[in-house]
Amino acid sequence: MRIGRQTCGILLATSAVWWAQAQTQPSLTFEVASIRPSTPEERPNFAIDPGGTTRITAWTPKQIIQNVYDIPGFFVFGAPNWSSLDTYDIVAKAQDSAGESAAAPPGSDRNRAYQSRMMLRFRALLAERFQLQTHMETREVSGYALVVSKGGPKLHESNPAEPGLDVFKAPDGGKGQGIRAGRSQFRGGTKFTGQRANMSLMANMITRGLGIPVIDKSGLTNEYDFVLEWVPQEVADGPDGAGPTIFTALQEQLGLKLESAKVPAEVLVIDRLEKPSEN
Prior knowledge:
Layout: E1 2-3, H1 15-23, E2 32-37, E3 45-49, E4 53-59, H2 61-68, E5 76-77, E6 88-93, H3 98-102, H4 108-129, E7 133-148, E8 156-157, E9 178-183, E10 190-197, H5 199-210, E11 214-216, E12 224-230, H6 233-236, H7 246-254, E13 256-272
């Protein structure tokens, strides 16, 4: 798995199931970890390699925290200023035993389970070397509610018997589930491709895409296949702007809209974070 500074271009699928299962396992840690300040010429990179090794280059502690806890940066509170400025290189190694891998089914689900275990190890590393202490709480924040527009939804209800896209194949070869972000036909735009996706998953993906909290208030409870293409506001307003913003695209393409609202959000609060201990 390779992650850039932005994380919206990822497949949001059923990894939450494996995350929950991983948390029930005994405490997972790395056997050895090296941490050093980055040099100015290094480019950001986050890679989880097979066999139990994770390599991070030129990432800030706050970026690492939000990815390890799988939470957008605007849902992280209490981080000291230096944690958004200082960058570090980390190489952490663990013995990812065959017994652990055998606990998960083959294919993409096994890969998600492996990644979840590595993220749990990183939580332990942050606690040990950065003295990280956190807690979760619900706060009311400014955001949007995803609702059905006046003309009604324009969504294709997903049929598991229909053929699915190759990128969404389930381990058994059936129709998989998720939303993938990719390049749009519009210059500088984004394309959301959904398969067997519910509106809660859609709200989560828009949250990551916009950087603003969005909750599902559509009342739609089924799963849908769809394509949504849009451009950022600054692109739409620019001289070469050719494409709808996400607000317009939702209404025109899917029959949905975003309404300003105060929304409850589960946020991560940092109680303690120190600069890392020496190797």
